[in-house]
Each structure stands twice: as structure tokens, then as C-alpha cells.
Design goal:
Layout lengths: L1 H7 L3 H5 L3 E6 L13 H18 L11 E12 L8 E11 L3 E10 L4 E14 L10 H13 L2 H5 L8
Antiparallel strand pairs: 1-3, 2-5, 3-4, 4-5
């Protein structure tokens, strides 16, 4: 699986052009006994990147008070390279596909020190009613800008093959 993800990746600069979050050097407290950034930080930051992108597209930080939210239904991580203390990284967010009630997002953890993709974090977010706790349609005011981004970055779907949305 990881080999096919790596083979499908475009040039570093193409991925780096995606919206970016958490641009920083790996701090000592992120490093585990193996001498590289621990899985928990790839997971946490990789998951928050797409959420922050949805916020920039209009989803309020307190979206839950509107009676709707997104729940994570599935995730898949491909590790392609390690990050070590002091190395520069950031999470770059994109969307691979969308259905009426779900979105397949991707957090690319980029190693800016060595100009490579260190990790690809895929997530299926399901839009839910906070009252019924059931899947509901993503509102057009958010679905439309997500769809526009999917159209402008078709290569993301070719990379994000670890998960798939069902109708």
C-alpha cells in the first residue's frame, strides 16, 4: 500500500502548494525512544489539518452548536519517511472525494527540511445531526467549496487510495 501511495505522489512543490497548517520544527517532546516524531503527533496534526481547512471554507469553529458536526468514521495512515528533532514540517490539507453525507480528506505531513512527504493521513468524515446522531447531508455552503477544491486537485484522489466513500 505505501509503495503505491509514494508512486502516486506528485512533485513535492505541488503538495506543498496545498493549504498549510502547524508549520514548525519537530520539538524534543514529540520525539520517542526511536529518535523520531512519535505516531501520536502524525495522527493528531494530520487529522486537524483537514478540519482547519474546512473551517477556512466556512465551517465555524463552534459548528456543533448549529446542530451538526462531522464524525470520523475511518482513517488510514501511510508513513513514507521519518521526521527527527529540529526538522521542519507542516500539514497540508486536501480533499479526495465527497458524497452527499461524507468527505474523504487528506492531511499530508510534509518534511520541509528534506523536501519529501513523510506521511499521508486519510480520513472519512461523516456529516451528522447532533440531535439524531445520524448522517445528514453536508450543507451546500460547505459542500460547494469542498467540491471546487476536489476539481482543482484531482491528483489527491489518485494518492488517497487507503479509504473509499460509499454512496
Amino acid at each position: 500500500m505505501t509503495r503505491s501511495v509514494a508512486a502516486a505522489l506528485p512533485d513535492f512543490d505541488v503538495v506543498a502548494a496545498l493549504p498549510s497548517y502547524f508549520d514548525q520544527d519537530v520539538p524534543a517532546e514529540y520525539v520517542d525512544m526511536n529518535g523520531h516524531m512519535n505516531i501520536t503527533h502524525y495522527f493528531s496534526l494530520g487529522a486537524w489539518g483537514p478540519w482547519k481547512r474546512m473551517a477556512e471554507l466556512g465551517m465555524p469553529e463552534d459548528y456543533m452548536v448549529t446542530g451538526s458536526s462531522f464524525f470520523t468514521a475511518n482513517h488510514h495512515i501511510s508513513y513514507l519517511g521519518e521526521l527527527r528533532e529540529g526538522e521542519r514540517f507542516a500539514v497540508h490539507a486536501a480533499f479526495a472525494e465527497r458524497t452527499d453525507k461524507a468527505v474523504h480528506s487528506v492531511g499530508f505531513v510534509l518534511d520541509h527540511t528534506h523536501r519529501r512527504v513523510a506521511c499521508v493521513m486519510e480520513i472519512v468524515h461523516v456529516h451528522v445531526s447532533m440531535e439524531t446522531r445520524r448522517a445528514t447531508s453536508i450543507p451546500a455552503w460547505l459542500a460547494d467549496p469542498i467540491d471546487a477544491e476536489i476539481r482543482t486537485t484531482p491528483w489527491v484522489a489518485a494518492v488517497a487510495t487507503g479509504l473509499a466513500l460509499s454512496a
